[in-house]
Amino acid sequence: MQAVLSDIYLFLKSGHVIFMVFWMAGLFMLPRQCIYMLDHAPGSPGEAKWAVRMGKLRKIILTPSLAIVWVLGLSMAYGGEWFTAGWLHAKLTLVLAMTGYHGWLVGQTKKMARGERPLSEKTLRMIGEVPGLLLILIVLLVYLKPF
Ligand code: HEM
């Protein structure tokens, strides 16, 4: 199994980076969709329209990309024998934070679709920066492998 994974390593890495970009794109878009929904009153047709758009973003882009990034990342970690590497431990900690952020934000969008308004526009703009900050640290770790 490990020999097969190392044979197809560059395909795994290509897919990993492609779906990482899709995942990040979705995480950048979702807080902005929340901000646009804030312009519409609870129960209004405008709210319903944004709820449908968020649902599609979640089901078609976000959740499948998260799953594929994890599967391909762990496959590379196994095929490349990286599980004892400090940089991967640090990276996985940041990726778990990114995954937690994903789950929390999806939960907030479901509340908003039910007519709740748990987050202000200011908060949404601030938390919208979180994936970008994590992305910078994750990419530095994987290319520099400092430890
Ligand atoms: C979900 C859990 C993840 C695991 C287990 C994982 C693991 C790995 C491993 C083992 C490699 C190959 C390293 C090498 O060959 O030098 C890799 C490459 C990479 N990972 Fe991840 N990763 C994960 C998530 C992410 C995320 C969320 C990002 C960005 C936000 C990311 C960005 C990258 C990049 C850019 C590369 C390519 C590095 C290169 O070209 O050598 N990974 N990842």
Labels describing this entry:
147 residues, mainly alpha, 6 helices, elongated, binds protoporphyrin IX containing FE
What does this structure look like?
The longest helix is centred in the middle third of the chain and has 35 residues, at 45-79. The protein contains 6 helices and no strands. Helix 2 (9-38) runs antiparallel to helix 3. 82% of the residues lie in helices and 0% in strands. It has helices at residues 2-7, 9-38, 45-79, 86-113, 121-127, 130-144. It has one domain (2-144). The chain has 147 residues and is mainly alpha-helical. It binds protoporphyrin IX containing FE (HEM). The site of protoporphyrin IX containing FE (HEM) has 21 residues, from helix 2, helix 3, helix 4 and helix 6. Protoporphyrin IX containing FE is lined by residues 13, 16-17, 20, 24, 69-70, 73-74, 76-77, 80, 82, 88, 92, 95, 98, 135, 138-139, 142.
Whole-Å distance between the termini? 27 Å
Succession of helices and strands: HHHHHH
Q: Look at the structure and give the mean pLDDT.
A: 96
With helices defined by DSSP (H or I, 4 residues minimum), what is the helix count? 6
The stretches of 5 or more residues where confidence is low (pLDDT under 50) are none
Characterize the largest beta sheet: strand count, sense, and whether it forms a barrel.
none
Percent in helix: over 70%
Helix/sheet category: mainly alpha
